[in-house]
Specification:
Blueprint: E1 3-11, E2 21-26, H1 31-36, E3 39-46, H2 53-67, H3 77-95, E4 108-116, E5 119-125, E6 129-134, E7 137-140, H4 147-153, H5 159-164, E8 184-189, E9 195-199, H6 201-204, H7 209-216, H8 222-236, E10 242-251, E11 255-258, E12 261-264
């Protein structure tokens, strides 16, 4: 069956006095629950310049981790995860209507990854990222919802210009400002030895894909790997909160689907 280990770390950085990043997870408590629901990991980054970024990010992660195990057993992750992201968006939006937050603006990015059998489903809004590291090579799974990335996709600026732009942090999509949001969702087929990295921009803005892959490919305790990843990013710059979850896949359970129901493939 699917077997993963994970580690996570977060750091205020060298400048900030509070941490607007949030992270959370759901870990099944039995083999049955691993097959009926699976694992969930999530990282959120409260949008700087808003009033209550830490409330927005914590709310989003809390909704996902609390609602995920309540889903009907066997629910397709590719439909469940974006639905939960929408629920998280509604919760953040509703926070602005609460008496204690009335008149406050808040928003957050969110990247979430659900795993079951040999599949990973990644759903995200904003510029918090997910990477898949396989055979020592890192591949960015998510695409940032930023103004400069849209300009790059249209061929108006180069990747180098995007990286150096003063507008690279301007989001075109985030949780909270609107009643509805449209997350991007991707499905991956996992292999033993794969490593998934979920992180805020405080990490990926300071480290190349090659540096991320080199650190998480080490044969070390996974919690130590997560701490090293965050520490390295803070050492490079440290002007932002920095958060990472590192999920190492030790074994998978290959399955097929027939009329929406999974069945185990012959060995």
């Amino acid at each position: 069956m699917l077997d993963v280990v994970f580690g996570q770390a977060s750091d205020f950085g060298k400048i900030r006095t509070n941490n607007e990043d949030a992270m959370g997870s759901f870990i099944p408590i039995s083999r049955h629950q691993a097959r009926s629901h699976g694992y969930l990991f999530a990282v959120a980054d409260g949008v700087g310049g808003m009033d209550l970024g830490e409330v927005a990010s914590a709310t989003a992660v809390s909704v996902l981790t609390e609602e995920f195990p309540k889903a009907q057993a066997g629910t397709m992750l590719v439909s469940l995860l974006p639905r939960l992201v929408q629920h998280a968006n509604a919760a953040v939006h509703d926070c602005t209507l609460a008496p204690e937050y009335r008149g406050k603006n808040m928003a957050t990015t969110l990247v979430a990854c659900a795993l079951r059998y040999d599949q990973a489903v990644v759903s995200h809004v904003g510029d918090s990222r997910c990477y898949l590291v396989r055979n020592g090579q890192a591949k960015q799974v998510t695409q940032d919802h930023t103004w400069v990335n849209e300009q790059r996709k249209m061929g108006l600026i180069s990747a180098r210009e995007m990286a150096e732009s003063e507008s690279r942090h301007i989001l075109i999509r985030s949780l909270g400002p609107e009643m509805f949001v449209s997350p991007d969702t991707t499905t991956l087929t996992l292999q033993p030895g794969d490593v998934l990295v979920l992180c805020s921009d405080g990490l990926h803005n300071e480290m190349s894909d090659e540096a991320i892959a080199a650190i998480v490919s080490q044969n070390k305790d996974i919690a130590e790997v997560a701490r090293e990843l965050v520490a390295r990013a803070v050492e490079v710059d440290g002007n932002d909160n920095t958060t990472a979850q590192v999920v190492r896949v030790r074994a998978v359970e290959q399955i097929g689907m027939y009329r929406g129901r999974p069945y185990r493939l012959p060995s």
